[in-house]
């Protein structure tokens, strides 16, 4: 029951939208009669053509909703809805024919004819869109040539874009390769610097150990010299001290005998 109410609400909403567009079409064609300039008339007809396309879409939507609710609606309701749809189609077709008349009077040779059909049982006639053209052969040739030229220009522009893209990609690949090589050289330089720092550290440690060894040797030499100097001083001050051995070259002076008078 809820789904039936929802379907009916959707159909009523679609019906209202279609009626709004049909009223807008009626007012629009009345404005076309009052417009004297061909360019403004053509622009107005283009706007009305867009509304007719939208109306055609809504009528298709309305037809789909009718078919979805057909099993739940009584036959008389389905008949009323189908009659309503056919009335909309006829009114839209009348505006299509009116548009064709205006376009012909404006000298526009391209005509789009909407044919939504008259029978409810044939969906192909309801959705059929016919394109008619009254352009002369020379106009067709001119239009075709112009289209081909525009297509060629578009192809040339596409080729230029592709070539630029390839060139940019090649340049980018070259830059990436150069940057990769540069990064490799930087890594090698870092390894060299690290090895040099390691060797310098070892050399500094060795120099430090050597300096420490030299200082120790000098200190011991200083102690020896100080000891020798101390012994010499003591020996000079107290030459009869037997606890201190005589140092070669520093023997006490020989005592001279006194002559008795």
Tags for this entry?
2 strands; disordered C terminus; mainly alpha; single chain; 261 residues; two-stranded antiparallel sheet
Give a verbal description of the structure.
Helix 1 runs parallel beside helix 3 and helix 2 packs antiparallel against helix 3. The chain has a two-stranded antiparallel ribbon with strand order 1-2. By secondary structure, it is mostly helical. The C terminus is likely disordered. InterPro entries: NPSN/SNAP25-like_N_SNARE, Sec20_C, T_SNARE_dom. This is t-SNARE coiled-coil homology domain-containing protein.
Radius of gyration: 58 Å
Kindly report how far apart the N and C termini lie. Answer: 172 Å
Provide a count of the helices.
Answer: 5
Strand content: under 5%
Order of helices and strands: HHHEHEH
Mean pLDDT: 76
DSSP helix fraction? over 70%
Strand order of the largest sheet: 1-2
The overall strand count is 2
- Based on helices, strands and strand pairing, what is the structural class? mainly alpha
* Unreliable stretches covering 5 or more consecutive residues: 108-135, 257-261
Largest sheet: 2 strands, antiparallel
Overall spatial form: elongated
């Amino acid at each position: 029951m809820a789904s039936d109410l929802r379907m009916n609400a959707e159909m009523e909403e679609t019906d209202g939208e279609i009626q709004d567009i049909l009223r807008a079409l009626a007012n629009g064609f009345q404005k076309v009669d009052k417009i004297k300039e061909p360019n403004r008339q053509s622009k107005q007809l283009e706007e009305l053509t867009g509304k007719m396309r939208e109306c055609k879409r809504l009528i298709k939507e309305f037809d789909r909703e009718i078919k979805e609710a057909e099993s739940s609606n009584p036959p008389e309701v389905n008949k009323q809805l189908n009659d309503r749809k056919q009335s909309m189609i006829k009114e839209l077709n009348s505006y299509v024919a009116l548009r064709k008349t205006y376009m012909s009077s404006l000298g526009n040779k391209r005509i789009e004819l909407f044919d939504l059909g008259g029978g409810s049982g044939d969906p192909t006639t309801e959705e059929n869109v016919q394109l008619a053209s009254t352009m002369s052969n020379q106009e067709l040739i001119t239009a075709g040539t112009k289209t081909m030229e525009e297509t060629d220009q578009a192809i040339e522009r596409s080729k230029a874009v592709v070539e630029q893209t390839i060139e940019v990609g090649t340049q980018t690949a070259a830059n990436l390769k150069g940057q990769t090589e540069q990064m490799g050289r930087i890594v090698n330089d870092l390894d060299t610097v690290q090895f040099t720092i390691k060797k310098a550290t070892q050399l500094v440690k060795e120099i430090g150990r050597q300096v420490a060894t030299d200082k120790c040797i000098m200190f011991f030499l200083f102690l020896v010299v100080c000891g020798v100097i101390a012994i010499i001083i003591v020996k000079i001050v107290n030459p009869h001290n037997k606890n201190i051995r005589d140092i070669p070259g520093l023997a006490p002076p020989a005592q001279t005998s006194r002559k008795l008078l």
